[in-house]
Amino acid sequence: MTSRADAYLPALDRAVAHTRTWLTSLPGRRIPPRLSVDELADGLGGPLPDGPTDAGAVIDLLAECVEPGLMAMPSGRFFGWVIGGTLPAALAADWLTAAWDQNSGMRFATPGTVAVEEAAATWLLDLLGLPADADVGFVTGGTMANFTGLAAGRQQVLTDHGWDLDRLGLTGAPRVRVLVGEERHGTVDLALRYLGLGAPTPVAADAAGRIRLDALADALYAGSGPTIVCLQAGNLHSGAFDPLGPAIALAKQHGAWVHVDGAFGLWAGASPRLRHLVEGYETADSWASDAHKTLNVPYDCGIAIVARSRAVRDAMGIQASYLVHAEGPGDPLDKVPELSRRARGIPVWAALRSLGRSGVAELVDGLAGHARAIAEGIATVEGAEILNDVVFTQVCAAFGDDQRTRAVTARILADGTAWMSGSRWRGRDVLRVSVSNWSTDARDVALTVEAVRRAALAR
Ligand SMILES: *Cc1c(COP(=O)(O)O)cnc(C)c1O
To answer: 276, 313 in Cβ contact below 8 A?
Structure first.
């Protein structure tokens, strides 16, 4: 008789073999997928078989059918959106997290995985220079990290104005004004929608996309009542950072809660060379980041950090007779929107433990250095123009008029050597390059610049 454990091994061995094939294909692989969802549907779908299939055979079928539909997102030459790769220790730790299968909501129930996450949280606060007693919640991504920080803010500013949100809800509550830079990320608006706070008040930004302090001051003076200010560490197009320290000080003069969306940019705080970009950010009330972007852990992993733990626990905590609650440090389930959750902080622990303090700084500096090198390379292409000051990991380029920029972008994607998407920024079509993979190296940079050059010179 095979044991229960033996039942897993053939399928896991197949998964290891397919993983090896995938990872070794990355350096030489064209980036785009070869087939569309609809073209993949036949192999993966059709009628559900009437009976069981062997687990190893299922994994083989899955890997073979999916392969032509995989985008080489973990490639060192993938520069679309802001994606990040996966560090070796983080990927392996993620597998273990799945194998351990701990529902990591309570310290009492799953001490092993909660201890790992708490260690990761302590390291994160230390590396980023954020308050050591802040609550850290591991959520699915930046969207939910923004949601968590803004929910804590909503809780606090309404409490400050004498409104009992838990009992009365938002109906009849004083209106919460939310001031945001005009170039904030769309997920801030999304989180505000989840929270029933409606559309935020946009505040003018400068040419780099940073919130303007004079405009923020005007907006703060123009109203009163419960107020949240949401700032940005890392603009999607320019990589620029809002003037965080002064903006937070200004907002605090008006009693506002200040949240910082640093999905990819918060990590500048872990680099002595780039730390100046986030100067003063530790005086905010909450911060959102992604580990699946700059830190290079697998999807999905975001980080919600809240300095005032009362507010986040009031907003997110749940008390029930069948749970076992921890006092003091609180339970993971008090700090995130979910009750049940995987221990997604474990890959964060592994990433940090494998890199060490200097390794994290080198990772962040390396991404920014490659972004600068790509910008310098593209700048040598005839007719190309770099539109942003490359202070971090983002580059925006144009190639003359919008039509030509779009054509060059389309040719880069068709070429497949590297991948970067088009966008529109400050009224222009742009080619957007976002460097976020630990494995990008000088060769990737050179191949990418040459691909851009080919695309720009073709007619
Ligand atoms: C990616 C991103 C988000 C959203 O994060 P998800 O992980 O996609 O949910 C929010 N803000 C900024 C600045 C981002 O780059």
So the answer is: no
Ligand 1 near 264 CB (within 6 A): yes
Tell me which of 183, 185, 230 to substitute to probe ligand 1's pocket, judged by most ligand atoms within 8 Å of the beta carbon: 185
Output the pTM of the full model.
0.97
Asked, for residue 78, whether it belongs to a domain, the answer is no
Q: What is the pLDDT of residue 1?
A: 47
Q: What is the pLDDT of residues 428-440, one digit of tens each?
A: 999 999 999 999 9
Q: Give CB contacts under 8 A, 24+ apart, made by 118-123.
A: 118/329, 119/349, 120/345, 120/346, 120/348, 120/349, 120/352, 121/345, 123/349, 123/352
370-386: burial string, b at 16+ Cβ within 10 Å, e else: bbbbbbebbeebeebeb
| CA torsion through residues 22, 27, 31, 34, sign | negative
* Residue 363 and residue 347 in one domain: no
Q: Ligand 1 mean position to 441 CA, how many Å?
A: 24
Same domain, 309 and 440: no
Which candidate, 416, 369, 420, places its Cα nearest to that of 79?
A: 420
Spatial separation of the C-alpha atoms in residues 53 and 175, rounded to whole Å: 56
Tally of structural domains, the chain = 3
Cα(441)–Cα(367) distance, integer angstroms = 9
**Pair 249, 343 in one domain:** yes
The 3-state DSSP class for residue 163 equals coil
DSSP character for 211? B
- A 10 A CB-CB count for 143 gives 22
178 part of a folded domain: yes
Nearest CA to ligand 1 atom 14: 263
Amino acid 4: pLDDT:
82
Alpha helices by DSSP H, 129-175 = 142-160, 165-168
> Domain range spanning residue 32?
6-72
pLDDT for 314 beyond 80: yes
Asked if residue 334 and residue 364 are part of one domain, the reply reads: no
Q: How confident is the model at residue 2 (pLDDT cuts 50, 70, 90)?
A: low
Q: CB of 82 closer than 6 A to ligand 1?
A: yes
Q: How many CB atoms lie within 10 A of CB 76?
A: 22
Q: Is the CB of 290 under 6 A from ligand 1?
A: yes
Q: Considering only CA atoms, which of 374, 442, 371, 448 is closest in space to residue 413? A: 448
Is the pLDDT at 327 greater than 90, yes or no?
Answer: no
> pLDDT category, 187, cuts 50, 70, 90?
very high
> How far does residue 263's CA lie from ligand 1's centre (Å)?
5
pLDDT tens figures, 16-45? 999 999 999 999 999 999 999 999 999 999
